[in-house]
Amino acid sequence: MFSLLEVFNQAKDDHHSKILTRKGVRSFMCYGFRVDKEIESEKIKIIDMTRGGDFYREVTKHEYHTFQTLGWKTAIYVLYLSNCRTKLSRLEARIKDALVNNESVKLIRKLKESRKTILKNFNRVKIKLN
Length: 130
Description:
alpha+beta; 2 domains
């Protein structure tokens, strides 16, 4: 079991993580997940930047547990694959609706191309995890 400080340090040491500098906060980002450490209070939180919406959301308690159990890199891969599965199921539903409702061929091609891209990324990360 890792503490949040250990997860932050793993992100800092990971050469794939990109450093983000903001006033009063030191952050590292990889595969759509960002770990923030406030400089003054030493408070650490993990943000999921892959979920839609107008603002980024802090990860759930279950996802925090995943980070603390698996560590930074493995947890990122596991959660990224989970996000890909969610996106794929939404895309499959949209493709079905587009086919049933006789949507334009251009839209259907665009949706299928999005599915292909997500599957390619999914397989690339799944290979890294194994």
